[in-house]
Amino acid sequence: MDDMAFQDIFNRLYGYLRESDVTMTSDRFRQLLLLIDDAIESVSQRGDDATSAVLDAAMDRMEDYFPATRVALAEVSPPLKRGSIGYARSPATGEQRGSH
């Protein structure tokens, strides 16, 4: 793999991590390089050396090297409870509206 292809893969993965709000430290840069090395090794064992194959292999392993933080989602709505609509009574007759 030539230097430009390696740099392209590094830039794409680095951009993905930055967009995912991963704070890059020296240890995380090392992890990123290890991820790329692992992806290159797995692709070369298959006999493929294409940049897209290495990038795909790296993205498949991303969760192993950079676990995503789990976000607890709030409930969309309060729990449904059985109830009555409670039709208003007619003020003049005292009858419920809609009943005859």
Topology:
Elements lengths: L2 H17 L6 H20 L5 H15 L35
Helix pairs in contact: 1-3, 2-3
Tell me what the structure shows.
It is a single chain. The chain is mostly helical and 100 residues long. 52% of the residues lie in helices and 0% in strands. The protein contains 3 helices and no strands. It has helices at residues 3-19, 26-45, 51-65. Helix 1 runs parallel beside helix 3 and helix 2 crosses helix 3 (51-65). The longest helix has 20 residues, at 26-45.
Question: Keywords for this structure?
Answer:
100 residues; mainly alpha; 3 helices
Encode the helix/strand succession as letters: HHH
Structural class: mainly alpha
The coarse overall form would be rod-shaped
The share of residues in extended strands comes to under 5%
The percent range for helix content is 40-55%
Average residue-wise pLDDT = 83
Number of helices: 3
Total number of beta strands: 0
Low-confidence stretches: none
Largest sheet: none
What Rg do the Cα atoms give? 29 Å
> Termini separation (Å)?
85 Å
Nutshell version of this structure?
With 100 residues, the protein is mainly α. It has helices at residues 3-19, 26-45, 51-65.
